[in-house]
Amino acid sequence: MTKPRRIYSIDVFRGMTIALMILVNNPGSWAHVYSPLLHASWHGCTLTDLVFPFFLFIVGASMRFAFVRWHHYDSKEFYKHVFWRTVSIFIAGLLINAFPFIRQNWDWSTFRIMGVLQRIALAYGISSILVINFNFKHIIQIISGILLFYWGLLWFGGTGNPYSVDSNVIRTFDMWFFGENHLWHGKGLPFDPEGILSTLPSISTVLLGYLAGGMLQTTKKYSESAKRMSIFGLALVAIGWIWGFIFPINKALWTSTYVLFTGGLAFLVLAALTFIIDAKSWKKLFWIFEVFGTNSLFIFVGSGLWAKTILKIKFNLDGELTSGYGYLYKTIFQPIAGDLNGSLLFAITHVIGWWLVLFWLYRKKIFIKL
């Protein structure tokens, strides 16, 4: 079996995305967070809104190299590999939703089915089948078709404002498919930002990453590849931004403009890293992020379970019960740096702590894959 070739810039990009994910997911207090470290309230795109599409983009870029091994093997083996990886990632997402598993009077009728890992699983599985069966030209056509179809679906399927939180077709479909009790209620009503229909355009995000991986795999000079990715990225950002005046950039709906805008930014980041790291060989500067790039799905699961665990643990603080999460923030970080900066320091401490965990695994050459 052919061993997949590794591109250092992709590994570093993955690590930077994971570090940012830990940072934005773990403020000391959600009441005290710098605005770029929060999701846009609805329309728009912040730094935080780049984490998920960047990760899916990297999944696609890595596919181009990982799937080389299947070119000399029976296709049944490929489909079995994709199927079981898709299932394992999806189940991991369900387990995170169910954690801590044993709950007094727990009502399964309100169990949320979808989530981040579930979307990654579905986008990965469907994209894998597409890239193994179609060439680059066809993939570009598929991306275009998905994005235009999704625009039409939202426009004609909605009631009232097709892009509002309460009257979009995504919410209507998910309530019918899952039932409103199985959806996320974070906006005060049943709406799942990782629902079924909105997973469709996320496939395009993975496919854009696959195109970027193809540019890297087929290049003879990394500097030329970086140039092509930069031009392609700028074009995508421009198209997404301009189209956004009539079709808003929106992460929760994963709009077509959001796919293009964030995909273009991902191309630009990867182009810059490719030029600096692979063309100029300035690798030592990015070693910290290489460590972050290892065991990426493990760190997603681990950091999520850790946050849920310390939220469940209760401490007495000034006569009131507070979570372990709040206790750490209020007794250590807030006194040191105040409300806002203490909240940021809490998040940075989590980034450093998880890096040490990953570094230990890296030194031991332990790589946990789902």
Helix-strand layout with pairing:
Elements: H1 8-25, H2 51-66, H3 75-98, H4 116-133, H5 136-157, H6 169-178, H7 199-217, H8 222-243, H9 256-279, H10 287-292, H11 296-312, E1 314-317, E2 320-323, H12 324-363
Antiparallel strand pairs: 1-2
Q: Would you kindly provide a written description of the structure presented here, covering whatever features stand out?
A:
With 370 residues, this protein is an all-alpha fold. It has one domain. It contains twelve helices and two strands. The chain has helices at residues 8-25, 51-66, 75-98, 116-133, 136-157, 169-178, 199-217, 222-243, 256-279, 287-292, 296-312, 324-363, and strands spanning 314-317, 320-323. A two-stranded antiparallel ribbon has the order 1-2. Strand 1 (314-317) and strand 2 (320-323) form a beta hairpin.
Q: Calculate the terminal CA-CA distance, rounded to whole Å.
A: 20 Å
Overall tally of structural domains: 1
Share in β-strands: under 5%
Mean pLDDT, to the nearest integer, reads 91
Largest sheet report: 2 strands, antiparallel
* Alpha carbon gyration radius: 21 Å
Structural class by helix and strand composition = mainly alpha
**Topology, number of strands:** 2
**Broad shape:** globular
Q: What is the H-and-E element order?
A: HHHHHHHHHHHEEH
> Residue share in helices?
55-70%
Tally of separate helices: 12
Strand order of the largest sheet: 1-2
Please mark out the parts with pLDDT under 50 across 5 or more consecutive residues, or reply none. none
